[in-house]
Amino acid sequence: MGFDPDLLTSPATRIRGYFHLPLPRGDNERQFTLDVKLDIPGRGVTGIFGSSGSGKTTLLRCIAGLQFCKNGSLSVKGEVWQGMEKTLPVHQRPLGFVFQQPSLFPHLTAERNLLFARKRAWKSVSPTEYEQIIALMGIEHLLGQRPAALSGGEQQRVAIARALLIKPSLLLMDEPLASLDQMRKREILPYLEKLHRTLDIPILYVSHAVEEIARLADHLLLMEDGKIVREGLASAVLSRTDFPVPLGDDLGVVVDARIAERSSEWRLARVQFHGGDLWLRDSGEAIGEPIRVRILARDISLSLDAHTRTSILNRLPVRVQEITADSDPAMVLMRLEPKMQNASTTTETCLIARITRRSLQQLKITKGSELWAQIKSVAIVR
Amino acid sequence: MLTDDDLAAIWLTLRLATTVTILLLIIGTPLALWLANTRSLAKGPVSALVALPLVLPPTVIGFYLLMFMGPSGPIGQLTETLGLGTLPFTFWGLVVASVIYSLPFVVQPIRNAIEAQGARPSEVAATLRASLWDRFWSVTLPLAKPGILTASVLGFAHTVGEFGVVLMIGGNIPGETRVVSVQIYDHVEALEYAQAHWLSAVMVGFSFVVLLALYLLQQRKSALGTPYGI
C-alpha cells in the first residue's frame, strides 16, 4: 500500500493518516513494522491501547513528527501535517505532547517551564486562561519550585499544564501515568477527567492500563504488533469477549449512563442506560448528569430465576448472546444482552460475565438462554 | 620578587589563555554538538583527530604546525598571500597552536554534557514550538552549562600550562611569545632559582585555586540536583 491521496482532502472533523515504518529491533528479534491506517474523530479522547511493544508510542511519535516516517501521511482536522510535498517539522505542528517520563526542563522552575510554552503558544494565552490552566491542574503552590523538588505526580501535572499552554489543536499523551505509582495515578486521573470535560481539544491517549482507558476514552484503538486490530466506540470495543489482549481480571465493560434518581434515604443513586437501571452509591452528581460505570466480568454471577431474597442490589434480566472460551480452561466468557422490560429493541450495551464451565453445564445455559445477571459491584469510572 | 619581565610574561600568558579559551568555546561548542548528535561516518575519524593532542608529544604538534605555518607550508603561503605574514614566532601563531593543542579539553566536556542530556529535552522543546536554533539557545546550551564551565576552565588552565608547543612554534620573544612556562625555563637555565621559585609558586597557586573553584562549583551544581556534570 502506498501513499493515499484521499487523506489530503480529509474533512475538518477527522484525523486521518497512514504510516508504514519498519524499525530495526534488537539482535535476535524479528523486525517490527508499524503499519497503520488511521481515521479517528477529531474530538474527544481516543485511547490507543495495546501491550508493550505493540507500537503505540511509535504511532504517537509519528503523528507528532518526532519519529520520521518516510512512507506516511497525516491530516489533522483538514490540515495537512505530512503530505506528498511537505512534511511539517515538529515545531510547526500545533500539538501538545505529554511524555511518559515527566520531562520538565531541569534548569527552569515550574513557572518558567510554563512560561516557556506560554511565550511560544499558537494563540496568545490571556492571564485568565493562564490562571485557569494552573487551577485545572492544581499546581498554584508548586510554581516557584525546581522540577527536582517536585514529586513525579506533581511534575507530570506541571508537564500537562505546559502542554496545554501551547494552545494545541491536538493533545498527544504517551502513557502519562505509567511512570507513577498507584497513589500518584489516583492523584492525577481526576485532573485528566477534568481536562476531558473542560477542554475541547482532541486527545490521543496511549496506555496499556485498561483502567485508564475505561475511565477516559470515548473512542478506542487496539494495537497489536504494529497494527490496529480493532477500533470503535470505547464502550463497544470493551464489551467484546474476544478482546485481543488478555486482560485477566480486568476484563469488563464500560456503560455510559445518566443519573435518573437519587435516594437520600439510602444514599444511593439510580442510573439509567440503554438496557436497564443500576443502583450505585450516590456520589453527589445531579440528576441528568452523564456517568460512566465499569462492570467487571468477575463481578457478575448468573441465576436462572430472580432471587429477590439476596443482598445483591443490581439484578438485570439478560439473554445470552454468545459463549466463548476463556484463556483459563475452567472458565467461559458470556456476552449478555440486557432484556429491555419496556421495549422490544435490542441495545448496544452488553455485559460480559465469566463463569465456570461446570456452572455452564449444570445450569444448562446455551446461546439464547434467558437469565438473571446479578451484579456484585459497579465502579463509577467517571 | 617578580621582575618586570616576569610580569610581562604573566600578562602575556593571561592574554593568550583568554583569547584561546574564547576561540575554543566558539569552535568547540558547535563541534561538540555535532559530535554528540551526528550519525555521520565522519564521527569516528573526527573524534580521533580532536583527541590526538591528548596522546601526541607537544613537540610533534609543534613541529607539524611549524611546517604548515612556515613560509613553505600551505597555511604559511595562504597567510602570506593574505598579507598577514607567517604565523610562527608571533602571538597569533601561539594562539592557533594552543587552540589545536587544547581542543580536546574543551570539546570533550561539552560533548559529554550534551550526550548526557539525551534527545528528550530537545524533543520536548520541539513540541513546544521551539525551532532548532531556539532549542539550542534555550535548552541544549543552558543544560550543558556545567560542561561548558568545566571546558573553559580546563581549556584556560591547559593553555597556561603548555610548554613544548610554545617552544617549537613561538620561540622566546619577550612580550610576544615568552609565556610564563618559558620564562621559568629561562630562569632555571640562567641559574636564577629564586626567580624560578617565585614564578613557579604563582603557577601552582593559580592552578590550585582554579581547580578548587571548579570542583566547588560542581559540588554546588550536583547539590541543586542538576544531573549533568563532567
- Please name the CATH architecture of the largest domain in chain A: 3-Layer(aba) Sandwich
Distance, first to last CA of chain B: 38 Å
Helix percent of chain A reads 10-25%
Mean pLDDT of chain B: 89
* H-E string of chain B: HHHHHHHHHHH
Task: Note the beta-strand portion of chain B.
Answer: under 5%
Q: State the order of secondary-structure elements of chain A, H for helix, E for strand.
A: EEEHEEEHHHEHEHEEHEEEEEEEEHEE
Q: How much is the average pLDDT of chain A?
A: 86
Number of domains of chain A: 2
Uncertain regions of chain B: pLDDT < 50 for 5+ in a row?
Answer: 224-230
**Computed structural class of chain A:** alpha+beta
Query: So, the CATH homologous superfamily of the largest domain in chain A?
Result: P-loop containing nucleotide triphosphate hydrolases
Using the coordinates shown, work out and report the CATH topology of the largest domain in chain A. Rossmann fold
GO molecular function, one term (chain A): ATP binding
InterPro entries (chain A): AAA+_ATPase, ABC_transporter-like_ATP-bd, ABC_transporter-like_CS, Mo/tungstate-bd_C_term_dom, ModC_ABC_ATP-bd, Molybdenum_import_ModC, Mop_domain, P-loop_NTPase
Protein name (chain A): Molybdenum ABC transporter ATP-binding protein
Domain Mop (chain A): 309-382
